[in-house]
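Budget justification aside, the reviewers requested a transparent look at the raw inputs and outputs of the sequence design task funded under Objective 1. We therefore reproduce one unedited record. The lines immediately below are the structure tokens for a 789-residue chain.
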């Protein structure tokens, strides 16, 4: 074995603690990069395979009622390869031992095609049981996730309010569907109170009075066909029948939310690991710079013995490469744990046919090459100057630093400081760049902890706005079809109801100049209290007597300002088209819609005093009787309980964010330990002679330790406010890059979150200080005080 190889092994052994901490930071960066990108690739592959195997449509459209004869004209649209129509209706489902409301989306299923093995678009995959059979009994297959949550198995019976009648439904199987990978009536998966049911389409059409008609349309496009042109033509054909507006696959609710999650994963897999890799390179560069400085004499001796600059440089680059390699190997093991844990979490949200974790060679190669390249570049900057020194000059000790009075001393405040603190401040001022970089590294650890924990604060803010300020009632109900506004009197007669407020929501297309959007116009009573419009900053907003209020997301999409006049086109009913003024813009956090006074909305729509939803407040002591009455009311197509909806939302968010927050915390601790421990070890190496001299002059071990570790304490304290600012900035960046189209995430960081991040990093710094204190206690005074001539 060559002399340089032996030297390398000895250096690695002597600096093993620093090698391990640096490799740990590198491992976290590599693990996060490979793990998150592999999860992204695994989900993407599973999604694409599922969509292709089950023939997910390219265009979706909803209408109030259109004749099946229209399908021939739709099939003739240029670019359309296949057309499929269905009947779909939401209705209440009554499940034994479930007192709260459950909504079922009933979808027509062509049983003849299913049994012949010729499913069309949006084909189902049978997970258990069998397919329904036509006959006297109404049989159904149900979405498997809903069945699992509600404990439904083939052979169970439920009741549903279909077409104003209470029908018995027999569950015969469970399925998954590419159209409902993300089963929801809103923005969060809801497998407890919302399920998809597929039944005989003939029975469904007859039950809801739609024989020879459809209200849902799916189209497959020819390869290369422009979706925008097809959608425009389809909208024109469907317009006379109350079309809500066709959308491409990317805007279909389930597919849109899946894509949003994939986009968020890509962001998280890029931003956070990049921070860890950058910090690892910085730590590696500092360690190598110190190692080179302490081995100037050895380098000079090697050069005098005939070793070339390239050989010596390769020796130190090998040191860095070994640390990077250790980090890469550990990072790949860590990535598998991160990837499988997150993939298991996503399996609770999305239902794909095959979801298997796999790591692509390209991702591993990218992480490895990036890490090795960064380590080599960072190391070369540390050794280049010393390697090029002539042997005679390298053998001389480096020029000692010139200590000058600190800024505080020059300002006259030095008299208030003891000798120890003046030494600490002079040391920091002598090497400002290294002190600044160390402070930045610790601050990044604080920032990463904040960026992982702030989501809980943000979700709490959303919960507060949506469930405490906006929805002050206890329940929401939907009517199908719309009813006269006088239905409020009937609602007040339900058991336990204390108050009721009706509202109306209609699909509309809004235009401002060349910009347009398909959204919802929501009409609220002027004195609405149970369900009201709330701005996140200003609080409750009163309904104006005229004009419309836009949410921030919609105003941003339309580039609208207060005072602009927008054109609103009702998509259903008389399809009235009106021009109204934008009188306010509110930040509602959720949704991209418009609000208007209910009476004004009914006047503009020209269809009479109609409503299609209501908010109710009831006596909790009569909750059982109230929900029993709701479930027995055929006109109520869907109902939701605020308490259960809120609990489900919080549980889902905590489940999703909890794992991410835990991983972020572990990463932040590792980063803080890596930075603080190496900073303290380097300071000890540099000042060992000084500290040993002070020990000989009579200072105790504790006094010497405080003198050294006070420098680390100063850096930690300086890093905390900087880390808080960086944490808020990183939180803003993450919310900006990952927020779905229908969510306007606020950046909320509670003081407790800042405090927790600071305490975690301070604890990591204290642990590192204790480790270094042990090294101080073990100083060999005789060996350290030997001065090189």
């Amino acid at each position: 074995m060559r002399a340089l190889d032996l030297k390398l092994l000895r250096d690695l052994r002597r600096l093993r603690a620093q090698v391990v901490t640096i490799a740990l930071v590198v491992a976290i960066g590599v693990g996060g990069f490979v793990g998150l990108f592999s999860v992204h690739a695994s989900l993407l592959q599973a999604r694409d395979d599922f969509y292709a195997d089950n023939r997910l449509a390219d265009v979706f459209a909803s209408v109030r009622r259109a004749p099946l004869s229209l399908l021939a004209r739709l099939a003739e649209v240029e670019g359309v390869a296949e057309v499929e129509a269905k009947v779909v209706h939401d209705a209440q489902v009554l499940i034994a031992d479930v007192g709260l409301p459950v909504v079922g989306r009933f979808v027509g299923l062509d049983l003849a095609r299913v049994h012949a093995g010729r499913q069309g678009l949006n084909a189902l995959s049978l997970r258990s049981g069998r397919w329904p059979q036509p006959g006297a009994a109404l049989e159904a297959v149900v979405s498997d996730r809903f069945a699992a949550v509600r404990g439904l198995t083939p052979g169970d019976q439920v009741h549903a309010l279909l077409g104003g009648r209470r029908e018995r439904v027999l569950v015969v199987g469970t399925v998954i569907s590419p159209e409902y990978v993300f089963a929801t009536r809103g923005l969060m998966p809801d497998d407890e109170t919302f399920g998809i049911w597929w039944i005989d389409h003939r029975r469904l059409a007859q039950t809801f009075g739609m024989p020879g008609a459809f209200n849902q349309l799916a189209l497959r496009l020819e390869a290369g066909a422009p979706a925008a042109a097809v959608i425009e033509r389809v909208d024109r054909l469907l317009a006379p029948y109350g079309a809500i507006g066709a959308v491409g696959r990317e805007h279909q609710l389930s597919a849109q939310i899946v894509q949003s999650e994939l986009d968020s994963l890509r962001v998280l897999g890029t931003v956070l690991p990049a921070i860890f890799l950058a910090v690892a390179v910085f730590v590696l560069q500092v360690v190598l710079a110190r190692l080179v400085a302490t081995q100037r004499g050895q380098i000079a001796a090697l050069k005098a013995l005939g070793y070339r600059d390239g050989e010596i440089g390769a020796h130190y680059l090998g040191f860095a490469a070994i640390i990077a390699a250790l980090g890469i190997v550990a990072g790949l093991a860590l990535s598998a744990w991160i990837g499988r844990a997150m993939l298991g979490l996503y399996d609770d949200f999305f239902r794909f046919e095959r979801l298997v974790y796999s790591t692509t060679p390209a991702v591993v190669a990218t992480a490895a090459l990036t890490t090795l390249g960064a380590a080599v570049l960072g190391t070369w900057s540390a050794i280049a100057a010393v390697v090029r020194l002539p042997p005679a000059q390298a053998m001389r000790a480096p020029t000692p630093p010139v200590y000058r009075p600190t800024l505080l001393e020059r300002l006259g405040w030095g008299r208030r400081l003891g000798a120890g603190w003046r030494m600490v401040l002079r040391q920091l001022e002598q090497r400002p760049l290294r002190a600044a970089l160390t402070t930045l590294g610790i601050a990044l650890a604080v920032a990463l902890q904040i960026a992982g924990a702030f989501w809980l604060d943000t979700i709490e803010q959303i919960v507060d706005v949506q469930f405490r300020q906006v929805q002050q009632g206890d329940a929401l109900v939907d009517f199908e079809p719309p009813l006269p506004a006088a239905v409020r009197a009937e609602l007040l007669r339900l058991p336990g109801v204390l108050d009721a407020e009706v509202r109306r929501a209609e699909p509309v297309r809004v235009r401002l100049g060349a910009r347009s959007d398909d959204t919802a116009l929501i009409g609220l009573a002027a004195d609405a209290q149970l369900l009201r419009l709330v701005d996140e900053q200003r609080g409750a907003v009163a309904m104006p007597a005229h004009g419309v209020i836009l949410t921030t997301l919609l105003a941003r999409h339309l580039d609208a300002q207060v005072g602009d006049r927008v054109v609103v086109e009702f998509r259903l009913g008389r399809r009235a088209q009106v021009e109204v003024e934008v009188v306010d813009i509110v930040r509602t956090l959720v949704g991209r819609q418009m609000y208007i006074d209910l009476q004004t909305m009914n006047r503009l729509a020209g269809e009479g005093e109609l409503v299609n939803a209501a908010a109710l407040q009831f006596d909790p002591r009569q909750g059982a009787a109230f929900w029993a009455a709701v479930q027995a009311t055929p006109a109520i197509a869907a109902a939701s309980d605020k308490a259960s909806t809120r609990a489900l939302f919080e549980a889902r968010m905590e489940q999703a964010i909890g794992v991410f927050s835990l991983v972020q915390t572990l990463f932040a601790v590792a980063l803080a330990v890596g930075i603080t421990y190496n900073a303290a070890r380097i300071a000890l190496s540099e000042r060992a002679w000084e500290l040993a001299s002070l020990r000989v002059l009579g200072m105790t071990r504790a006094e010497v330790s405080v003198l050294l570790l006070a420098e680390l304490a100063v850096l930690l304290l300086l890093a905390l406010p900087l880390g808080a600012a960086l944490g808020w900035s990183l939180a803003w960046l993450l919310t900006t890059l990952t927020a779905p189209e229908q969510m306007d995430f606020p950046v909320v960081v509670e003081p407790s979150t800042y405090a927790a991040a600071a305490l975690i990093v301070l604890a990591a710094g204290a642990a590192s200080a204790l480790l270094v204190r042990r090294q101080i206690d073990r100083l060999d005074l005789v060996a350290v005080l030997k001065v090189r001539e």
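The mean pLDDT is 82. The first strand starts at residue 59 and ends at 67. Computational costs for records of this kind are itemized in the attached budget.
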